[in-house]
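Customer escalation, tier 2.

The customer says the design service returned an amino acid string that "doesn't look like it belongs to this structure." They asked us to rerun it and document both sides in this ticket. The original structure tokens are below, unchanged.
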């Protein structure tokens, strides 16, 4: 969930690393208090929502006659272990495999809990989880720098709360993770990531126990490793972090986004006559509608057009951010413009990303 914000600046990278790796060291007894709710979409498909809001990523379980296919593995191994136990109890069967919807650490940190089964993910997941060897690890902030960063974050959050349209409890859950990260992270001994055992390309079809899992890679969108998975027997599409209900879609900042290819991939699934009944995002309760996804595509297409025109006229990214307020998109009036529990503006970040890549 935090990967888009994490990649914006060197300071953001260091803070994101602190958040993710530190959170992996949360004491088990404290994680036992985090609530987990099961949302049953059909007799064979359930979403397991971790936490009270969308701050934590969720996990989805799909039953087959050969075991349960699980999507994503949380940020924390302790929580992934708890969800796995619930899945095995609820479905009364073994885990067949794990599918990572993308490589963000809040979806792969618990891969270690599934090392006994095959793990599937896009080939770019390996790159995202493998520390670079050609350059030194970014230095962690000093205590003074960390104090200043946390103070600035708190100030941004307080300002964001004035126009925040999400669940205000997201700030509490986000702050709780940050505090444990600050107190617990050991930069000299970070946990070793678990890479998927099967790395896929543009397309991969897994047939297992009477179910079909059609995995497709999306153009760089939320990340470079996003895949969507269609399960025709369940009329279900698992879409990862690309789209989530009530939250603006985020454009990947490090690579140009081919929105045409992105839209083409989704077109058949989100058409007005679609046969897909369940669209599952990977935060909160997870479900989103085809109409909401079409709405979000409308926002992205309009944004690409307007940023392109304004950049061509000589406007800077900062100028464009003031010229294209989110209020210009009245159909998004209920959408939260901020990242879960933070003052990070997804809308402004999208403008900056497009400005950097539009020629």
């Amino acid at each position: 969930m935090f990967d888009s914000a994490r990649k914006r600046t060197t300071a953001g990278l260091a803070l994101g690393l602190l958040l993710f790796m530190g959170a992996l060291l949360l004491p088990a007894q404290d994680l036992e208090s985090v609530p987990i709710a099961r949302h049953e979409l059909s007799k064979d498909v359930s979403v397991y929502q971790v936490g009270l809001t969308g701050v934590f990523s969720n996990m989805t379980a799909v039953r087959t006659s050969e075991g349960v296919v699980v999507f994503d593995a949380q940020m924390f191994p302790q929580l992934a272990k708890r969800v796995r136990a619930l899945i095995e109890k609820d479905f009364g069967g073994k885990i067949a495999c794990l599918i990572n919807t993308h490589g963000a650490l809040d979806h792969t940190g618990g891969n270690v809990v599934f090392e006994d089964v095959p793990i599937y993910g896009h080939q770019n997941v390996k790159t995202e989880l493998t520390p670079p060897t050609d350059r030194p690890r970014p230095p962690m902030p000093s205590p003074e720098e960390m104090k200043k960063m946390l103070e600035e974050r708190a100030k941004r959050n307080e300002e964001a709360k004035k126009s925040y349209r999400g669940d205000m409890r997201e700030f509490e859950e986000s702050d709780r993770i940050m505090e444990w990260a600050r107190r617990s992270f050991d930069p000299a001994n970070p946990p070793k990531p678990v890479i998927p055992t099967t790395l896929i390309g543009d397309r991969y079809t897994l047939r297992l126990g009477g179910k079909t899992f059609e995995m497709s890679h999306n153009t760089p969108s939320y990340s470079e490793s996003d895949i969507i998975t269609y399960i025709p027997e369940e009329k279900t599409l698992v879409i990862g972090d690309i789209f989530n209900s009530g939250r603006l879609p985020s454009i990947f900042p490090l690579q140009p986004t081919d929105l045409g290819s992105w839209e083409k991939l989704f077109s058949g699934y989100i058409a007005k006559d679609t046969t897909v009944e369940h669209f599952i995002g990977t935060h909160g309760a997870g479900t989103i509608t085809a109409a909401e996804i079409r709405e979000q595509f409308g926002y992205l297409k309009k944004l690409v057009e307007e940023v392109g025109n304004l950049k061509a006229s000589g406007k800077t990214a900062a100028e464009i951010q003031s010229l294209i307020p989110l209020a210009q998109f009245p159909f998004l009036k209920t959408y939260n413009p901020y990242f879960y529990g933070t003052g990070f503006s997804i809308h402004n970040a999208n403008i900056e990303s497009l400005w950097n890549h539009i020629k």
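Tier 2 assessment: The sequence is consistent with the input. The first strand starts at residue 36 and ends at 42. The radius of gyration is 20 Å. Sent an explanation to the customer and offered a walkthrough call.
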